[in-house]
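step 4 of 6: structure.
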Amino acid sequence: MGNQEMGASPDEVLIEARGLIRRYGPTVAVNNLDLTLRKGEIVGLLGPNGAGKSTTMKMLTGNLAPSAGEVKIKGVSLREQPKLAKSHIGYLPEQPPVYPELTVDEYLRFCASLHRMAGKDIAAALASAKRDCGLGDVGSRLVGNLSKGYQQRVGIAQAIIHRPPVVILDEPTVGLDPIQIREIRSLIAELGKTHTVILSSHILPEIQAVCDRVMIIARGLVVYNEPVANTHNQSSVVCGFRRPPEAVQLAGIDGVDGASVLGDGRFLVSTRKNADPREAIAAAAAERNWGLIELHAQQRTLEEIFVELTSGDLRAAA
Amino acid sequence: MSNVFNIARVEWRRIFLSPLAWAVLAIVQFIVGFVFINLLLQYANDAAQGSDLGVSDVVAGSLYGFSTILLLLIMPLMTMRLFAEERKTGAITLLFSAPVSLTEIVLGKFLGVLGFIVVVMVLMALMPLSLAWSTNMDWGRVAAGLLGLFLLMTSFGAVGLFVSSCTREPTIAAVGSFGLLLVIWLANILAYNDSVPFHQVFSYLSLIDHFESLRRGVFATADVAYYLLFSALFLWLTVLRLDVERN
């Protein structure tokens, strides 16, 4: 539909998820998650353990069917045309999905053939994936005999060997040594030039170093979704109300760019450039009887944002 | 279709890269060879007393009849890893996120196991072949016995594949498929119990009763169809089981 018109533009939407919900019995792991990714973006998915990062990634890659909602990859519905949609994705799950009894070359050739690459293209794809992931001299070794770090690289090579437009990496730097972490980071940055990348991590500096945009997930909800540049010296306002209004009402106030719900009647209000909406918020609260109980500006780092958004969440859950 | 063969090729290769396959083949060959020689000695002895059994009866009948029990023991070991181990190590994600349908995954794995079965069949066929230069064999009879073994193993493989898709512990998959196979095998016990309603049906459902006629050299389409339908049923159940897993 609309996606075809956008096909040629650099802003092409590669992943679009709408209203994703995933329940495990009574537990809701992911609750009404929306996600849009454009070409050439590197998005970092942050969140405390059990926030729903891996579940989200599994749904985006078709490993898990969402209880509700829809995923479109390059405009192709993952539910209606799973084979076509999956052919646009490369996925590295938490544990690299490797066969320990095969050699690196055999394994990667198999991965390439699963993606229906023609025999003559496979050799070139194999060589370039190995070069990108620093696997040049272990091609004939058994995957099972490699160290954890090298197995991780094999996992990444597997995700990019067919050069998919979308690469999804679940904690790609776990188990790597510091030098390897740097190499993988520069690899991801390199990938980001031509591919769209989603990666999840616990390591905040890593996200800050590599990603264009940060999404923080807590209790299955997206609680933060901003370009990384905004987190540098970004000033924002936190306010709390006894009788909280809708977030839209807050967003309508002068100088306010947007408001996100923190729970317990608290909001994180992002401000327009060089604007300080605190006075306007106070006035609006008094006028509409919201019961203002908290109002302060803050300059925050990504870590502070993360801690605030997720620990507040834990308090609410407790 | 090319995906099915790709998966089958890698699965077959992985089966033969593991020492398990070679150990199983060696032990099967040793035991079956031992029984074969024993049967031959017995036959030679009986022949001296003027028995009217042919040598093909001994090989295709007694030897292959005995082999079924051995195969019942080893097939669960060969199929236990197919899905259970991959699920345990997380390698199954590779196939689930690739542009491959569940049916292709299941058929690919099954074809890989068929590759192993073919190797077992070659071993089984070698023993009557070794007699070919010294006596006249009833090849039709031997072929019927081999076909019966092949179909029986195919059914074992399909059941094993299904049980393996239900668990993440290979050992549980092995015990489970052995148990399930034995129950279907023994369904014919009920057939001899007159107090059970419709008791003839159980004889028809039993895995081993359909092998009996093939073993005796009688080729009946109904028996072949039974094994093919039986395998297809469990392959279909495997696809359903994997689909449930995603939901």
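step 5 of 6: annotate
 - DSSP finds twelve helices and no strands in chain B.
 - Chain B has a mean pLDDT of 88.
step 6 of 6: archive
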